[in-house]
Amino acid sequence: MPDDRFEVNGARVLADLNALRAIGAYKTGVHKPTFSEPHVRSLEWLAAKLPDAGLTATIDGIGNVLGTSTRAGPKLLAGSHLESQNYAGWLDGPLGVVYALEAARVINPDPKAHGAVEVASWCDEEGHFGHFLGSRSYVGLVTEADVDAARDRTSGRTMRDALRDIGLAGRPRASAEPGRHVGYLEAHIEQGDTLESRGLAIGVVTSIVGIWQYRLNFVGEQNHAGTTRMAARKDAGLALAKFCVAIDERFPGVCGPRTVWTTGRIILDPGAPSIIPGGAEMLFQIRDDDPAVIARLEDLLRTMVDEVNAQGPCSATLENLRTGAPAMMDEGFQAAIEAASAALAGSRSLRMPSGAGHDAQMLATIMPAGMLFVPSIGGISHHWTENTDDADIVTGAKVFVDACRRILAG
Amino acid sequence: MPDDRFEVNGARVLADLNALRAIGAYKTGVHKPTFSEPHVRSLEWLAAKLPDAGLTATIDGIGNVLGTSTRAGPKLLAGSHLESQNYAGWLDGPLGVVYALEAARVINPDPKAHGAVEVASWCDEEGHFGHFLGSRSYVGLVTEADVDAARDRTSGRTMRDALRDIGLAGRPRASAEPGRHVGYLEAHIEQGDTLESRGLAIGVVTSIVGIWQYRLNFVGEQNHAGTTRMAARKDAGLALAKFCVAIDERFPGVCGPRTVWTTGRIILDPGAPSIIPGGAEMLFQIRDDDPAVIARLEDLLRTMVDEVNAQGPCSATLENLRTGAPAMMDEGFQAAIEAASAALAGSRSLRMPSGAGHDAQMLATIMPAGMLFVPSIGGISHHWTENTDDADIVTGAKVFVDACRRILAG
Known about the structure:
The structure is a homodimer of 410-residue chains.
Chain A: H1 10-22, E1 25-26, E2 29-30, H2 37-49, E3 56-59, E4 65-68, E5 75-80, H3 94-107, E6 116-121, H4 133-138, H5 144-149, H6 159-165, E7 181-189, H7 194-198, E8 202-208, E9 210-219, E10 223-224, H8 236-250, E11 260-269, E12 275-276, E13 279-288, H9 291-311, E14 315-323, E15 327-328, H10 331-344, E16 349-354, H11 359-363, E17 369-374, H12 390-409
Parallel strand pairs in A: 5-6, 5-7, 7-17, 8-16
Antiparallel strand pairs in A: 1-2, 3-4, 4-6, 8-15, 8-17, 9-13, 9-14, 10-12, 11-13
Helix pairs in contact in A: 1-3, 1-12, 3-12, 8-9, 10-12
């Protein structure tokens, strides 16, 4: 019998992913907000698995799980996240963590392999309490004051209270050790339909797009929905609806080939059926990997706001909530993933940007970073129906582990 | 000295209105949701005042306050309501209650007057728990099952729990006694700017418009705001915004001269900045006093929904939540208000429909009913800045009481 201890075990990868799905299951997906009971159990599950890969597990003071190796030679950091969006998919996060775990299990004990894979599960990638708090903490971009200020976006609970309740208060936060790692590799589901629609198995991520987020606020005049003549109205909700439609009409003439934009939230004030809204607010987001495109679109947005204010009857303001520069993935890591894909997936790969944000963009600020995508069925993401074919999951694991070996071999 | 006991005392009317404003004050208005502590204190305030007008006070099992007289002769029922919309105006409701109280105070003890004015404060006209529950109960249109089902629209608290907490559980609900009253008269602020903009003092209400209310639901596909190409999106929020703009463009070609329509609430599902809304809902209302106009507009709405479904990418459904026939005010009552206005307000009156719903529309189902409006400064309503000039309040009181005398004199 051949010794298969040093080869990817597809059944084990699928079993681990299903074990994580069973913790906090919701329909065919999961509901694991950051620091919820099923999220904490998932962190503990990972910490218990890491010794099998020759790693020492720690859960740090912000909920990052890290598996560190004492093996000589180069070290590659690999991972993703274990919490989920609310009522969302089973693979968004866990796929990258289990691939990293599998890579460590087969590479770290392999006498023929160079160095070791170290595993990370970054806390709160999904942003329940903030904005990539776990990976940002690791790269040194989170202060104690930031942790003090962080609150759960749904319940309003402070991060400090949540950390205390799960026994992590007072622990140190782990920081990247300069020079320790040759880089960071992360696998993730694509969350779009580009790979599936072209029959491909592997996405080689070239960059992670920047996210620019805005709050648009419209002010009219709150009044009675029965007694105020149509001509006398200043309906902030209608002004907002017209703005959304104008964006839909005018952005395509200015955007880049892969720009996306979304109005994800609308709130009318006071929001009662018999009251003309005096206020209306929308959260609006633009993503692109070219800051020049964003600059053009932001100019257009400002022009449109000026037009609303000039024409009336409502006024509008634009507030920039978040400005995210795109992160470029390392060229050598892209080549390693492509070579692994040629060896194990018939070169069914495509270089592509990531439209979603990932922890890799934070790690990329201090070390070479790369990302690998596997297909998403129907492109569905952030919904419990999100899924990937088992065969694609296993192929992805094999390509990921081979890419790790190639990166470690230099 | 002339005996002024049987004449309207303007200072007393203003003092009473300000006393009610002090209970649950919010800025220059009030915050008195149904069965809140300040609302209950306002009911008790009224019950304590009614004996001054020779009336016996009761608070019934649904929170109506009634002052009944044993005086011989015809009886006119008069009143309005004491709870408010959230953070709303001080006169919306209390004006009509204090006018009725003043009418009872000056008419009931007057040896030269015919009969008596009886006073009512109808509970929950503002619809925190339902839809005119107090006056509908009085006219026999509310079942015990309706009371069981009623819940506060903000807190979700059941009406049963609220009634128990304020000590009204188990009390009988008062019902109209057939033949007891010659009719019902209600005063209210106009809640629009028609009277003010024409320099008039009194609105003689001809009808109360019907309210038709709809829920429009749009279904698209929830997906990731970064990874889903624009061309592949089914954005339910955008479909809703387009529908709002289409209403704004197409309704004016079909509506009547006084039709009004309002989108008061919009909810996107799930309403997160990084998720394309898979669902979107709006509450939409049309008001008119001509059912034929409503029928035309409802046809147009259905056509527009069919167009959304035919064109895609989202689907839409239209649900009729509420159908309110218009209520006609009694011609004799209109003439009495006009005559009183000629005597005491220099005929600065106008016959006009009410665009807002009022308890009078419920009383009109079982007895002759009339309504009188006083001007609203700037037409502002359902907002704490709502106001009426003190001189207009006093003029309105005099016209109201004189109209009561004329109606009782037959």
